Amino acid sequence: MSLDYGLGDIANWQQVCFVGEEVDGARRMNIATETLIFATLVIGHGEITELNVCDFYVRLEAHERLFGGMRRRGVNGEQMCFTFEEVYAHIGLRTNASKESDAAFWKRTRERYVEERMSSVKIANNNLKAAAQHLAAKVEA
Fold this sequence. Notes:
Helix content: 40-55%
Structural class: alpha+beta
Oligomer: single chain
Mean pLDDT: 92
Radius of gyration: 21 Å
Strand order of the largest sheet: 1-6
Number of strands: 6
Strand content: 5-15%
Low-confidence stretches: none
Order of helices and strands: EHEEHHEEHEH
Distance between the termini: 62 Å
């Protein structure tokens, strides 16, 4: 299924959502807007409204703190996290992403975090065991 979106209800949407000069009748979409469109799938809100902007931002902030910023900048690909002001400026953004309950979102996020951290810790554990065995072999030799 395609991800459909609407920007027309965002205040000053042409200035908020697009950057640069018009070329061949089109302008380039702001990376913040593009990322927020896809973030609606991850966050579990298909729209940003006056009523849910705080909840949307808290979910987005938690996701970015746990898994890293959703945007990159510069040649080094430095991660960028959203500010509340950026999200607030996009009130009126709508997509066809499904609404996910708070309980389902936080359960899914917690499970993903635990799974990713457990994997990292197991790798570190295996690396430490291998290093200890290597040192033990050197001492015995």
